[in-house]
Amino acid sequence: MKYLDLWTLIRDEIRDIDHDNIIGVLHFVVDHSGSSPGKQGFKMLVLNSGIHSSIGGGIMEYNIVEKSKEKIKNNLSKITIQELLHDDKSDSGEKSGLVCSGKQIVVGIPFNRSILDLVNKIIHSYNESTAIYLEITRKGIEIRDKKPEFSSKFNFEGSINENWIYQEKIGKSAFNLVYVFGGGHVGEALTRQLSLLDYHITVCDNRTDLLQIRENKYAHEIKIQAYKETVEEIISDIDSEKLDASNISIVIVTAAIGTDYEVLSHLMVNLKIDTYPKYIGLMGSTTKISKLYNRLRNEGDPDHDYGTFIGRIYAPIGLEINSGSVEEIAVSIAAQLIKVNNED
After folding, report:
1. Which pTM does this prediction carry?
2. Is there a single domain that holds both residue 51 and residue 179?
C-alpha cells in the first residue's frame, strides 16, 4: 500500500506543530482520460521539506509544486481544482505542458494541523476490513463511515466549474489483498517486492520458531498459526462480505508438500465457485504439482468441483522469465499478480 507512507508522513509532520498555518498541500488526481501520465487516485504531497510521490511528472508537476510552495508561504487555504490537457495544440482548456495527449483533473488541498484526526483514521483504516471512503468537495476532505455506493475504487462526478465530488475507498477492503502462505526465503522476498506496489500483504506460517517471518518488516500483517486457521478466516471474511473475493490473491509457497496440501484442500472444500479469489498461485515443480493434484482428486470431498478449482490455480507460479534466485522468483510472481489483477 504505497500511500500509507504518505499518510504516515503527514501525521508525523503535523502532530507536533503548535500553530495553525498551512504546512503542506496534498494533491489528488481525481479523474483522467486518454494517455494521461497521472491516473485517477495518484497523489502527491508538497511540503517545505520536499516532494513525495507523483501525479504524473514533467513540467506539469513542476508548475503545481511551485504554486503549492507559494500557498504554503502565503498561508493560503483555498482548495483548487484544475483540468489539465496534455496537448500543446489544443485551442481550449488549460495546457499542462505535456504532449502525451489525454487529460487529468487535479485537486490541491492545503492543510494544517487540523486534519490530524482525519489522517489518524485513514492510517488506522489500513488494518480494518470495514468499507469506508474519503470524500473531497470544495468544502474540504472528510471520511464517510459507511459502505460506499459506488462499485469501483474511485468515483468522480460533476464539473470543475460547478459542483463536483471525488470519492475514494479506503480501508483494508479497498486494496488488492495478498495472502502469502509461507514466510521463508521466497515469502520474504515476495513481500519485499510487493511492498513497492499497492497491496495489503499478509504473511502466514505455522512455524513458531521461524526468524524470517518474525523479522519481516514488509508485511502489514503476520499470522503465526495453523494454515487452515488462516484459510478459515479468509473464507469467513468473504462470506460475511467484509472482504471482496475479487480483491484477494493467495500465494502458496510453504516449506513442504504436506502444508501446500493443507492450504489447497481447505480452499477447495470451503470456497464457493462464485467466491474464488482473483488469484491462487502454487510454487513447485511439475512433478510436485501433479502429486498434489492427484491427492486432491483422490482424498478430496466428492461433492466439490475438483476440476473447476484446479483450473483456477496458477502453477507453477509466476511468469516464465527463467528465474533462478528467490529474488527473481519474487519478481516473476509479482509480475503475474499485476497481470492477473489488471485483467477485466
Report:
1. 0.81
2. no
